[in-house]
Amino acid sequence: MPEMPPATLLAALGSYNLLPAIVFMPTRRRCDQAASETALMRRDANDLRRDARRDFMRSAVEQHPEIRGHRHWDTIIRGGVASHHAGHIPAWKMIIEKLMSAGLLDAIFATATVAAGVDFPARTVVLTVADARTASGWRQLTASELQQMTGRAGRRGRDNVGFVVVAPGLHQDPQRIAELLKAPPNPLISQFRATYTTLLNLLDAYGNFAQVREIAERSFAHREAALQITQLEKAQAESKRQIELRLKAAGCDLPLATVTGFERLVSARARLHELKPQTRAEVFHRWLDEAVQPGRVVGIGRSGRRLVLVTEKRDGNVRGIREDGRSANFALGRIGRVYSPSYRLRDEFIEEAFEDVRRRGKELVIPEPRLRDAQAGEGDAISALDDRIESIVPATLDAEEKVRCTEALWGALVDAEELERATQRIERLREEVWEPFHQRARVLAVFGYLDFAAEKITERGRWLADLHIDRPLLVGEALESGLFNSLDFHRIAGVMAALTADEDRDYGQLELEDALVKALAQFEEIGFKVSTEEWKLGIEPAPELNFSAAAAAARWATGAEWSMLVRETGAEEGDLFRMLSRTGEALLQVAGLRKAHADAARIAAVAADAVLREPVR
User: Fold this and answer.
1) Measured between alpha carbons, how far is residue 242 from residues 214, 236, 257, 403 in Å?
2) Helix%, strand%, coil% for the chain, nearest 5
């Protein structure tokens, strides 16, 4: 069915006495359009309510002058409807909420994000879609999101019941909504993350990695891992109990370590049997995989006359350079010979490599292993394990006791295997919890903020621990390099905005001055150094700097009027407000480093004052 026009929708709700309503729309733009269209199509017949709205708005302007001349001013007064979403500044949203609570509005058109952030119930909630829009596209609403939205239906003390209306539309899915309403809420997701400042503060407070690791394992973020560990520990205890019962029944006084050691020996022997080559082809392919390496020359085919210098080997495929300079790409199994020297993979040395192989020929060929030799090597290892398995029962026991204990060990093997699996799984789970902290500890050690061997933070680490901002390590390195000291306050504001703003948010196309571009380039150089070390240790790269945010923040810090900034950037007021607020908070963090970086702190304080002015609070 086609989407119902918003004015028609409200008229239908009004005819059934289902107003006021919160109408959830898919996007910010659609909320604004719906409010404007509705105000043009309907006029509140109640002059007293219209006058009350006008008086309320005029009173609000005295406290919040930034809302004067808002583009939705007439929409509210004439139509008794409003839009409410993150694109509006907080002062405007607060006024909308107060008007709704006072009963002066018939409807609010809002996005799904509003449901969890405010408390202004209505008689009716209208759902126009079963999807939510994100930065990466559309996705289905979750059970918790829908229950937050529908939970706004019904006003305490005024309605005996609240109503939820599923409005028709091209992308509506009533069946999906019905299922979500009956579904249990989604699990809570912890926002606890392994960050540089979290690690520094925990290490400073608790003194060693072991204590930090214990705190991390007990955090709500890893509750699933903790539950699994608890269950595995119970399984461990049960396996140990079964092993002890079996040994006791056999009258065998062996420690648990002997049983677990026996299990490891038997498992190792089984793996060697699996790895033991059975055919010459199997031996040959294993040997090729080890011998063929970038920098070595190989011969293709049985004769091995066609030579190729290997440049890359991956997943059973080989890439290289032929003698005539052409590239070659072939399967590993096509190689007939491998030559031992490793040559440098530079253009000036390639011809020399082929000449060396042609000249010295057979003396450079790596001999292929024989099946008998390969089997003999594996056989020796298996024999050694056999001897260890046979001797694991103490020689001091008499013959009868040795037989009983040997049978008890084999009988306990299944429980010992279960014990070993549970132990390894517990270790892996604990490593998964600790690994993000371990990675960041290594990076901090590279830059001198942490002494990894001593498990202590350094003096540099102490002030970095106080920087509760996005990308603290980048800011810390910029401070250490003196970059902040060379910038004016409005350029520092621009740089901090670029760091803290959402990467994918557009804050307009204001032109960047050359000095600010240069400063951002210097920050990117530092960011590249930090990201390189992070990449080495498997840490996800940080988002790119947002240059549009830098331009907008720098213009605001120079004293631009709010209305002018909104007009010149073309960005949503709410987006600008949040970006500037986060920028100001980050600048205050730097301004707090008066002992460690006095000059930078002084300039950051000036920049914070320039950014955190009305209406940005």
Assistant:
1) 30, 10, 14, 20
2) 60, 10, 30
Q: Where are the alpha helices (DSSP H) in 307-458?
A: 347-360, 371-390, 399-411, 413-446
Max CA distance (Å), the chain: 107
Q: How many CA atoms lie within 13 A of 278 on its CB side?
A: 3
List the alpha helices (DSSP H) in 218-346: 223-249, 256-275, 280-291
The whole-angstrom separation of Cα 80 and Cα 557 is 37
Choice among 113-122, 222-231, 442-451, 585-594 with the minimum mean pLDDT: 113-122
**Alpha carbons 26 and 112: distance in angstroms, whole number:** 7
Residue 77 in this model has a pLDDT that exceeds 80: yes
Q: What is the enclosing helix (H) or strand (E) of 3? A: none
Torsions phi, psi for 61 (to 5 deg):
-60, -35
Residue 177 DSSP label = H
Q: Which residues contact 45 (CB under 8 A, 6 or more apart)?
A: none
Among 79-88, 171-180, 282-291, 405-414, the range scoring the smallest mean pLDDT is: 282-291
What is the four-CA torsion angle of 154, 158, 159, 160, rounded to 10 degrees?
130
Alpha-carbon distance 121 to 22, whole Å?
8
Mean pLDDT over 105-124 rounds to 80
Lowest mean pLDDT among 227-236, 333-342, 366-375: 366-375
The two three-digit tokens of residue 344, written as one number:
């440098």
Measured distance CA(122)–CA(152) in Å, rounded: 6
Q: How many Cβ atoms are within 10 Å of 571's Cβ, its own excluded?
A: 22
90 vs 96: CA distance, rounded Å: 10
Short-list 506, 504, 478, 505, CA closest to 491: 478
Quote the distance between the C-alpha of residue 454 and its chain's center: 29
Per DSSP bridges, beta strands 81-84 and 137-140 are: unpaired
What residues does 314 pair with on adjacent strands?
317
What's the Cα-to-Cα distance from 486 to each of 62, 478, 599, rounded to whole Å?
A: 41, 11, 10
* Radius of gyration in angstroms for the set of CA atoms belonging to the chain, rounded to a whole number: 35
**Chain position carrying tokens 């000291």:** 485
Return the ∠ at Cα 577 (arms to 573 and 68), rounded to 5°.
Answer: 50
Mind listing the pLDDT tens digit for each residue in 20-74? Answer: 999 998 888 999 999 999 888 877 667 788 889 989 999 988 888 888 888 888 8
Average pLDDT for 520-531: 92
Average pLDDT over residues 384-395: 81
Tokens representing 590 are: 């730097």
Q: From CA 459, how far away is CA 461, in angstroms rounded?
A: 5
C-alpha pair distances (Å), 164 with each of 116, 122, 150, 272: 17, 10, 6, 66
DSSP assignment of 146-174: HHHHHTTBS-TTT-SS-EEEE---TT--H
Please determine, for residue 1, whether its predicted confidence score (pLDDT) is greater than 80. no
More confident residue, 46 or 445: 445
Mean pLDDT of 542-554: 91
**Phi and psi at residue 66, to the nearest 5°:** -70, -15
The two three-digit tokens of residue 139, written as one number:
């996705």
Give first-to-last CA distance, the chain, whole Å.
45
Residue 303 has pLDDT above 90, yes or no: no
